[in-house]
Amino acid sequence: MIKTLAGYVREYKREAIITPILMVVEVIFDMLIPFIMSMLIDEGVQEGNMDNIIKYGVLMLIAAAAALFVGVMGAKTGARAATGFAKNLRWGMFSNIQTFSFANIDKFSTASLVTRMTTDVTNIQMAFQMIIRAASRAPVSLIIAMVMTFVINARIAMIYLIAVIALSIVLGIVMGKSVVFFKKIFPKYDDLNESIQENVTGIRVVKTFVREDYETEKLKKASGNIYKLFTKAEKMLATTAPAMMLTVYACIILVSWVGANFIVQDAMTTGELMSMLTYCMNILMSLMMFSMVIVMIAMSEASAERICEVLNEKSDLHNPEEPVYEVKDGSVDFNNVVFSYHKTSEKPVLHEINLHIKSGETIGVMGGTGSGKTSLINMISRLYDVDSGSVEVGGLDVRQYDMEVLRDQVSVVLQKNELFSGTVIDNLRWGNENATEEECREACIIACADDFVSKMPKGYHTYIEQGGTNVSGGQKQRLCIARALLKKPKILILDDSTSAVDTATERRIREGLKEKLPEMTKIIISQRISSIQHADKIIVMDEGRIDGIGTHDELLANNEIYAEVFESQQGGSGDFDEIGGED
């Protein structure tokens, strides 16, 4: 874990190394001040020697100024190293997430990934800054101050040593108990972020069903869990301040009393006593600072583990050593394909699929919920790899292609595709970043999106809100189809992506695809028979198997599921799951 995280310090190594050095130098200057102060009192004030007062006073000012300068520089380099480290961690996680296959993504919830890239990284940033600053300063300050007290008066220094040992035991017990609570806190942020994300994303549904009170209570519960754990941890930590103050005042009283007796006996000077009292505060404050560093490290341990899980996650899909960079045509072949999302699953999602699609054909796919329709098309663009068998595109196994090239030639439009904040044309250019406005317009004409885009206030330069909230579901689907067409793929897959479009517009889209893009292979998944009945072939899926393949007329005559669905839709129901889907 440490090795993984350390690799992301990268260009900030110099600052990470310089900062502890500066902290040590600052401590040395700080520790000189009480020592000089004792000489100022003994050789200047008590003897009435103004020259010594000025000399030692100037030395104290120089030491203080040097400590201030070095401290500021250390704070500056420490902040730069910590924030840079956090920046690299976020970039590392985000870039690694982009390489994930769908199987990798399934391991992490969206809320969990957001928490890891925000709260967890912030914890690591704070811990790292404390490590390179306080963790180097506190021990050195403690050791030097303790050595100086023994140099001045070993007998009085024993009071400090006993106090440090006693306070260390108390702090160790308190920290050990509080760390248990801190480790439980940060995973709870996932629940909190998930609640907030769901509520904000689905705010229209929440208001439609008048569920504001329920969602508020749900958030209150998630926030309350964090509050309870933090409260318990802070209550434990709160005992450290009284323990420290009790120790400090006890030490001051004891040192003052013993020191006064030594002064009377001429075994100690007044200046040395003042130095001893100053070192007392340095010793105990250093101990407290060091204990807080330990707490912060323990708090961030859980965050570090969660971050490393994302950084170390490797995509289970890889390019071959010598990938093919050209897809010959849009033909698709499934050869005895078996697939399951989890290797330990007892029952595969797809069973012995054998399917052959010629380039340029229009294929319809229908089936009930869980029948394997989406899983089938995920194999074509290699979003998952098959367990056994092979999927071929353009006559070659998809595992032989460069994945980016393959996915550029297999364009998928999902039912719930996303639009991103930006203009209409910005969203369309996700399909082809170099597309001209005229090319974008032509794609929109085929997708029947040009009609409503042209009526927008700024046409193709109208701003789309995050998630496409300022366009309807049908408009969003048509823009997503146009975006997919701009890739100029050899295979276009529409996964129930016209479900929010009226049948007349859907027919126009279908006719536009057939007329303008006759060489493109088109695979259309739909629950509506009217959407696929004119396809060259229709595939009926049932429980992960192909139940039938044929034209509309052939399936009406020979496939019981298809015939029953057709009759039900003619009658107005159209619920596939009532006919041939899962129970």
Q: Your description of this structure?
A:
The structure is a single chain. A six-stranded mixed beta sheet has the order 6-9-10-3-11-12, with helices on both faces. The protein has a four-stranded antiparallel beta sheet with strand order 2-1-4-5, with helices on one face. Strands 7-8 form a two-stranded antiparallel ribbon. 64% of the residues lie in helices and 10% in strands. Residues 572-583 have low confidence and may be disordered. With 583 residues, the chain is of the alpha/beta class. It has helices spanning 2-6, 13-45, 50-98, 102-105, 110-132, 134-152, 154-201, 203-208, 212-238, 240-264, 270-312, 373-380, 403-409, 424-428, 437-446, 450-454, 473-485, 503-516, 529-532, 552-558, 560-571, 576-579; strands at residues 332-339, 350-357, 362-367, 388-393, 396-397, 410-413, 422-423, 463-464, 491-495, 521-525, 537-542, 545-550. A hairpin with a 2-residue loop joins strand 4 (388-393) and strand 5. The chain is built from 22 helices and twelve strands.
* Shape label: elongated
Biggest pleated-sheet summary: 6 strands, mixed
What is the β-strand count?
12
> What structural class do helix, strand and pairing data support?
alpha/beta
The helical percent reads 55-70%
- Overall mean pLDDT score? 84
Round the Cα radius of gyration to an integer and report it. Answer: 35 Å
Helix count, per DSSP?
A: 22
